């Protein structure tokens, strides 16, 4: 718990500094684009919250490893080194708005590859009899690991659409990871998970319900990579953890990404990276909690959107945490989540949202038009 406290205090203080002095460097740090297809804020806000998370992790791992014996110093710092390419590409995009989607994806893949060699983080099994023998071939296992880690890294960025959404979902996932790591006695994974819970918590105070700062691409990539790498390490180090656990505990961001690819490429025939404003969280904002256009009302609607997705994510997180060793329960949970997600998405798109889901101030008045103008880079 010491790492959680150190992470929280470090992140809170660093975020405070960014918020306090962000206006002095607004040309770099502030998100001035208020009309992008996935923009849901009403005034410029710093989008470099990832810097606070990285600083908090560095401080916590250093003090925890050298002074308080709260984490294995060497492995913790190696994890930060592995995360550096993904984090750096995101922060540079946050500051310059000039890093392409492809470049950021390649950076995430590079981070995953570094993790393979520095931390031995390789997916060697998926607990499927026909596939596991194939993964005994090292290049195939490494390739799958790189794709999976890079995909989940980007997935957290995709769900980072509303105040507190990605932050709280990530805290819930890290909470599950920390619990499972405690159950199997993995000190590295547990200490890192606690550190990230604290760091994200210190940031979230400034991000929800009203946002004084955003995670930005750097923060989302750092969180996503850390989640992915810890999940890979758990399965790689502990044979008693079902390989389906990582899939189910992170199924909300993962399935949101896969569904978005399907919707863009297969249904609409558009490039996978093409912008759109019809993610599930955006539809909930526009059609379930829709009410008024005043900036103050818009902020309240923004904050009311995230709890819908927090609850949805727990459909996977809670069973995964309790039955991390049971493949049958995990498989059933995955199916239940997919059915629930598709049902909810379809109901909202067809204006058939159940009344019990609509907030007392929500109102559905008109279809949401197809939007094709420039997309916010941090949701790419």
From TrEMBL:
One of its GO terms (biological process) is cell wall organization. It is a multi-pass membrane protein. The keyword Aminoacyl-tRNA synthetase does not apply. Mg(2+) binds at residues 157, 217. InterPro entries: Glycosyl_transferase_4. Its cofactor is Mg(2+). It is found in: Cell membrane. GO terms for molecular function: metal ion binding; phosphotransferase activity, for other substituted phosphate groups. Keywords: Cell membrane, Magnesium, Membrane, Metal-binding, Transferase, Transmembrane, Transmembrane helix. One of its GO terms (cellular component) is plasma membrane. The chain crosses the membrane at residues 6-27, 48-68, 74-93, 105-124, 130-150, 162-181, 187-206, 218-237, 243-262, 307-324, 330-351. This is Glycosyl transferase family protein. It comes from Caballeronia calidae. The lineage of its organism: Bacteria, Pseudomonadati, Pseudomonadota, Betaproteobacteria, Burkholderiales.
């Amino acid at each position: 718990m010491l790492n959680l406290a150190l992470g929280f205090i470090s992140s809170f203080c660093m975020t405070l500094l960014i918020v306090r002095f962000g206006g002095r460097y607004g040309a770099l740090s502030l998100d001035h684009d208020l009309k992008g297809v996935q923009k849901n804020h009403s005034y410029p806000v710093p989008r470099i919250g990832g810097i606070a998370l990285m600083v908090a992790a560095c401080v916590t791992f250093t003090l925890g490893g050298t002074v308080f014996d709260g984490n294995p110093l060497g492995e913790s710092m190696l994890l930060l080194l592995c995360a550096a390419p993904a984090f750096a590409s995101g922060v540079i995009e946050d500051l310059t708005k000039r890093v392409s989607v492809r470049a950021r994806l390649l950076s995430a893949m590079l981070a995953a590859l570094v993790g393979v060699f520095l931390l031995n983080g390789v997916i060697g099994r998926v607990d499927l009899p026909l596939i596991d023998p194939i993964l005994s071939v090292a290049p195939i296992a490494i390739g799958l690991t790189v794709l999976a880690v890079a995909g989940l890294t980007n997935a957290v960025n995709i769900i980072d659409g509303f105040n507190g959404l990605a932050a709280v979902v990530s805290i819930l996932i890290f909470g599950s990871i920390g619990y499972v790591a405690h159950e199997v006695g993995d000190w590295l994974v547990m200490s890192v998970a606690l550190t990230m819970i604290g760091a994200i918590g210190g940031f979230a105070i400034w991000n929800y319900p009203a946002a004084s700062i955003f995670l930005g691409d750097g923060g989302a990539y750092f969180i996503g990579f850390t989640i992915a790498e810890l999940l890979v390490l758990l399965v790689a180090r502990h044979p008693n953890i079902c390989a389906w656990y990582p899939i189910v505990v992170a199924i909300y961001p993962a399935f949101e990404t896969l569904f978005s690819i399907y919707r863009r490429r297969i249904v609409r025939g558009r490039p996978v990276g093409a912008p759109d404003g019809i993610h599930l969280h955006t539809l909930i904002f526009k059609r379930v909690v829709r009410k008024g256009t005043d900036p103050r009302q818009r902020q309240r609607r923004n904050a009311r959107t995230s709890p819908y997705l927090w609850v949805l994510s727990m459909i996977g997180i809670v069973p995964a945490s309790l039955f991390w060793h049971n493949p049958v329960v995990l498989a059933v949970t995955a199916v239940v989540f997919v059915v629930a997600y598709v049902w909810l998405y379809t109901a909202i798109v067809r204006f058939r949202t159940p009344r019990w889901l609509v907030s007392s101030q929500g109102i559905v008045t008109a279809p949401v038009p197809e939007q094709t103008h420039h997309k916010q880079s941090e949701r790419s």
